[in-house]
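Archive entry. Fields below.
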Amino acid sequence: MNETIDETFAPAGVDWQQVSPKLTIARWISWSIFIPFVIAVVILLVMIPGVPGFVAPLAGVVGVIAYLWGLWFIARRTKSWAYAERADDLIVTRGFMFKRLVIVPYGRMQLVDVGAGPIDRYLGIASLQLHTAAATSDAVIPGLTPDVAGALRDRLAQLGEERAAGL
Amino acid sequence: MTEPAPELPGWAEPTEPAEPTEPTEPTEPAEPAEPTEPAGQMQFTGDPASEPQQLHPLSPLVSAVPVIPALLLMSFFFNGGFLWDRDAVGIPIAAPAIILIFLLISGFRYVQWRRYTYWFDGSGDLRIDDGVLNRNERKVQLSRLQAVDVEQPIIARFLGLAVVRIDVAGGSESKVAMAYLTLAQADEMRRELLARSAGTHGYEEESIAAPEELIASVRTSDLVISLLLRTVTFGLLLLTAVVVFFIFTTEGAGGLVLLPVTGGIPLLLVVSEFMALYGFTVARAKDGVRLRRGLLQKTAQTVPHGRVAAVDIVEPLLWRRRGWVRIRLTVAGVASGGDGGDQASLASTTLIPVATHELAEAVLAQVLPGVNVAEIELTSASKRATWRAPIQHSQLAYGANDLVFVTRRGFFTRHLSVVPHARTQSVSLQQGPFQRALGLSSLRVDVAPGPVVIEALYFPKEQMRTVADEQVVRARLARATDWASAPEESPNHDA
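PREDICTED_STRUCTURE:
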């Protein structure tokens, strides 16, 4: 386990599976729409008459720093994402600033969704979402390779049916 | 992970088919508090199927009447604000136009009514065929029935008619409304649906015909006072008083602009809630807890046994001196996506709008039998939580016994939220930067969608971690011996 997860949110003695590093790349690509935005602002500042000459480069530098910080933050955040299949439940941990640990008992799973957007498909990753009867159950595992995601889905569906009971 | 719903057991032995009740003439509004029990009509002891039936013949007219006010309003505007002005187009044009449009709509409703049939099919489920241009055939899976309400909108009430609203778990078309039946038919339909859903095949007639036992009824004066003393309402009313004071002392009329906001909103809230919650009674019936309410539109709502996912005991600050509480409910399939807007869903998720602690306990015992919330030992927040929640920290607490998990939060409006272990869906821990600096964490128990939120806020993180693990285990054990379920609940696990 990496150091960004503390013991409360990632109990030891569990077989933690981390998500694919490709997830970081996928999120980086999404984040990169920030770049054209920075460029547009810089060009605008250059073109608008009356703006002091130093403002445009300053905005550019600030934009680049913000972008790089974003890259670092995304990397830390996706790295903290992990899941583990325990005997009776699936646990998902994530978050770096805002940490979160979700425990979903197998018997409560109603639906397991596997999906992939265009960037995900290009990179060959998929995300898996668990649904329970509660709309607020927020258990998503992104950045799985399709075969891992498919195998996990089938395993979870199997376990869910075995343990299913009541509402 | 979906599997076909199992057939309901026990509809096998065929005897004589159930007598289809012909729509009768409208009777005068019966008193819904003591429903008459048509003993002969409850014999579906054998054959699950029944003949297709139609709704009440007055239905098209009743459902067309509500357009009249809209038409009047329209003609009012077209006429430049003078509806009955003799010089303008006035009556000669407006009246025939209104009558024509009304007849057109009635005609359409009539065709709709002709096409609407309902019956019980061979597997005992309710089937509804309707639709004029697009035919629609629905099968209401009674094994997934969540709730049946009988409603009487104002016009239907004068004619002794009622709407039966059916909630079924899951699916986008999970709500069905049958408008209109006579009140007696509607009550019978409700009993039949609930009995069929519980699978109480061959139950004794006397027990279902047993009179409802009144548990609580809310006094009108208490309801009015309680609505006025709600935290938000009272705050806004106080603000109104301040605004009025300044208008009088400074003689500046500018403050008048604020009045509709500060005075109007709470007034609207109070009036609409009063109309929805007027005459609230809680009664115990064979098929569940029956809630009746409504001033103009009367509603009889049934919470079937064991369908309660969570309960919230709400205490606004100004109620506490009087020892009053309000209880709200999450019943799977009821609160989510209500079709009547916020107020309707507020009313339809209220177990009792105002009650003393003793009465609340008696009412709670009906929906959560064997749970004495007052006896559960609560763990209060540590001193560290003061930094994160300076106002409400003294209220923060959680606790559990062998049946339920309980959390408490909120200072101005205190919430004591209760979830049966058997209704726990998932458990999660959260921690933001501020909480991390203090070594705190918060726990949430996820339940079916509804008004109740179960959160234990700002406790030491190791402690929360233990509680989360314990709660998951408790939920699993509770599922094995599903105390909160109806005895014959279907083995389907979706809600």
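CURATOR_NOTE: Confidence is low (pLDDT under 50) at residues 1-5 of chain A.
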